[in-house]
Write a structure and sequence with these properties.
By secondary structure, the protein is of the alpha+beta class. It has a single domain, classed as START domain (Alpha-D-Glucose-1,6-Bisphosphate, Chain A, domain 4, 2-Layer Sandwich). The chain contains four helices and seven strands; from the N terminus they run E-H-H-E-E-E-E-E-E-H-H. It has a seven-stranded antiparallel β-sheet with strand order 1-7-6-5-4-3-2. The protein is globular and about 45 Å long.
């Protein structure tokens, strides 16, 4: 239940997909959990910090993040301060000139105990929350695909 991945092939070159996934203020357009993002400084690069307002039904909560990997057209990742997870987008050229985009939730340092406790108490438990994250990742990738291919 810790590391999660999902992937999609997009009929657009990595540069076009990169422009979308690194535009953090647009994250609410892609992710069903993110309501709004606020970025400290532009352009987004390694070390950039931002704040997300997230939601699950009527429940809203903030998270803060820092960009921890930034390899143009290849790898973009940010660490969520509150739960220690790392969310990433990896881009690989596909054989047909498009892009294979993989989104992952990585847990290199585990998940913070306070986050686990809050998920269990307020967000329906780990299994339910993980299922919601998996569904959300699939929606996120489909929305990015639609934007990149339009």
């Amino acid at each position: 239940m810790s590391d999660l991945t999902a992937a999609v092939t997009i009929a657009a070159p990595p540069a076009a997909v990169w422009a979308l996934v690194t535009d953090v203020e647009r994250m609410a357009e892609w992710s069903p959990q993110v309501r709004r993002s606020f970025v400290a400084g532009r352009p987004v690069r390694l070390g950039t910090r931002f704040l997300n307002i997230n939601r699950d039904g009527w429940k809203h909560w903030p998270t803060s993040a820092k960009v921890v990997r930034f390899s143009p057209h290849e790898d973009f990742a940010f660490r969520i301060t509150e739960n220690r997870t790392v969310w990433s987008f990896r881009l690989e050229p596909s054989a047909d000139g498009g892009t294979v985009l993989t989104q992952a939730r990585e847990t290199p340092d585990g998940i913070a105990p306070i986050s686990t406790a809050l998920v269990n108490a307020v967000l329906g438990g780990q299994r339910h929350f993980t299922d919601c994250l998996r569904t959300g990742m699939a929606q996120t990738l489909q929305r990015i695909k639609a934007a990149a291919e339009s």
